[in-house]
Automatic annotation (TrEMBL):
InterPro entries the record matches: FAD-bd (IPR002938), FAD/NAD-bd_sf (IPR036188)
Signal peptide range in chain numbering: none
Pfam family, one: FAD_binding_3
GO molecular function: FAD binding; kynurenine 3-monooxygenase activity
Top-rank lineage group of the source organism: Bacteria
Keyword Oxidoreductase applies: yes
Disordered as annotated region, ranges: 450-471
Record bears the keyword NADP: yes
Listed name of the protein: Kynurenine 3-monooxygenase
Keywords: FAD, Flavoprotein, Monooxygenase, NADP, Oxidoreductase
Cofactor: FAD
Annotated ranges, domain FAD-binding: 8-359
GO biological-process terms attached to the record: kynurenine metabolic process
Length: 471
């Protein structure tokens, strides 16, 4: 059992989220021990895509970490759409320079945040699997690589162990009437493809939308690309499913038909799509996010599909919210508020946000695979962008609300539905291109009193953060 100074926290999971939280808690003077099932160099499942960070998640990290991530990641300002007819179009992510993504390999993000946690004084223990959780003591039962088991106690247990969370499963199994969990696979899966695309524009996310499936190429800092194919795994119609690609010849025919402009750059695509099974995508939700003195953070609480690119941003927002609440309740002091009361406040805020993001992410699949190839969709997005530029107090595009603001996901979802419904009424029966200025003028006239102004909500920041970036 680790020595305690004032208060102690055990974190299960040494991924980016666990390490980010460890740093924030160490800055409050809390003793932090992080236990990781895998080894120090464990590399994951082999099915991967870059993580996309936006200001929502980046601003929850210390300034020094944020600076390193910008140096190691690729800054993306737009989508680059490769249409079926060979045409290429672009869609800016926002309306100013702050509206961009940082595309970064998971391993790079992992190493950066692990190093930061170690420098902050957190202790990381590898090859220790969580077997059980006692939320009342609280304590975790750990099994090391030799098979030996033992309980480790702390003042707080945090599950940051991802979608396959042992902490979540242990709590739900022991207290099924006090924490519900749902696990849903979606029809789509994904496979990583090796593609030589070094001469492509490195400032945008490249998409090849093809109906119910799409190819995505994410730039890296070194001008390589992480490329993934998203499509249904199987189903009634086998035309566009992974199941219809059983042989190298079938893969070659498929890629030549769907992606003729880049098929020559996919030198290993037959191997990529036949020798490895596609990764399955799933949504995991639960409520509440805590039980007594144990709490879930990140994918352990809310695993979402990757189609909005917000999973890791939501997770970092979790860490900032939890750290801020613990600081406010004087957790580091023995005279602070009861931990279970603080965790209830955390659940009250973050459960709604996590459920909303799950819905938003699934809905965005249709946009990425099909709508971005539609002239009507593109005209609507151009109209919304211009409306926001002229009247930012009246209308904000959904992507900007979700990626580049601190408005909670659930509030962003609700307010944008109001935005969209009101704009639908003004657009009905009109040509979105030819009558754009008239539509904008009428919308402003109808809603000029700021009916849709967003509530201002400061982002959660741990105590001691001197600015949005901190040090």
């Amino acid at each position: 059992m680790p020595e305690h100074t004032t208060r102690s926290v055990v974190i299960i999971g040494a991924g980016p989220v666990g390490c980010a939280l460890a740093t924030l808690l160490r800055r409050q003077g809390v003793a932090v021990d992080v236990y990781e099932r895998g080894g120090e160099s464990s590399g994951g499942s082999g099915h991967s895509f870059n993580l996309t960070l936006t200001s929502r998640g980046l601003d929850c990290l210390p300034r020094s970490v944020k600076r390193r991530l910008y140096l190691q990641g690729a800054v993306l300002t737009k989508r680059i759409i490769h249409h079926r007819d060979g045409a290429i179009s672009t869609q800016p992510y926002g309306t100013d320079d702050a509206h961009h993504l940082v595309s970064i390999p998971r391993g790079v993000l992992q190493d950066t945040l692990r190093d930061q946690a170690l420098r902050a004084g957190a202790r990381i223990h590898y090859e220790h699997a969580c077997v059980d959780v006692d939320t009342a003591r609280p304590a975790v039962l750990l099994r090391d690589r030799h098979g030996a088991t033992g309980w480790v106690e702390a003042d707080l247990v945090v599950g940051c162990d991802g979608a396959n969370s042992s902490v979540r499963e242990a709590i739900a199994a022991a207290h099924p009437t006090e924490m519900w969990v749902t696990r849903d696979h979606i029809a789509h899966g994904h496979a990583e493809i090796t593609m030589d695309y070094a001469d492509a524009d490195p400032t945008g996310m490249h998409l090849w939308p093809r109906g119910d499936h799409f190819l995505q190429a994410q730039p890296n800092r070194d001008r390589t690309f992480t490329t993934s194919l998203f499509k249904p795994v199987e189903g009634e119609s086998r035309e566009r499913h992974f199941a219809e690609l059983p042989s190298p010849d079938a893969v070659s025919d498929y890629c030549a038909t769907e992606f003729p402009d880049v098929v020559a750059r996919m030198a290993e695509v037959e191997h990529d799509l036949t020798d490895r099974r596609p990764g399955r995508l799933r949504i995991i939700s639960c409520a509440p996010y805590h039980h007594r003195r144990a709490v879930l953070v990140g994918d352990a609480a809310h695993a979402v599909v990757p189609f909005f690119g917000q999973g890791v941003n939501c997770s970092f927002e979790d860490t900032a919210a939890l750290a801020a609440l613990l600081a406010r309740s004087r957790f580091a002091s023995a005279s602070g508020d009861p931990v279970d009361v603080t965790l209830a406040r955390y659940s009250a805020v973050r459960v709604r946000a996590g459920h909303a993001l799950a819905d938003l992410s699934l809905r965005n699949l249709e946009e990425l695979s099909e709508q971005v190839d539609s002239s009507t969709f593109l005209a609507r997005r151009a109209l919304e962008r211009r409306l926001h530029e002229l009247h930012p107090d009246l209308f904000t595009p959904l992507y900007q609300l979700v990626a580049f603001s601190t408005t909670s996901y659930d509030t962003a979802q609700r307010v944008h539905q109001e935005f969209s419904t009101a704009l639908d009424r003004v657009c009905a029966g009109r040509d979105l291109r030819l009558e754009r200025d008239a539509i904008i003028a009428e919308f402003a006239k109808r809603h000029g009193r700021g009916r849709f102004t967003l509530p201002r909500r400061p982002p959660p920041r741990p105590a001691g953060h001197r600015s949005r970036l901190g040090d």
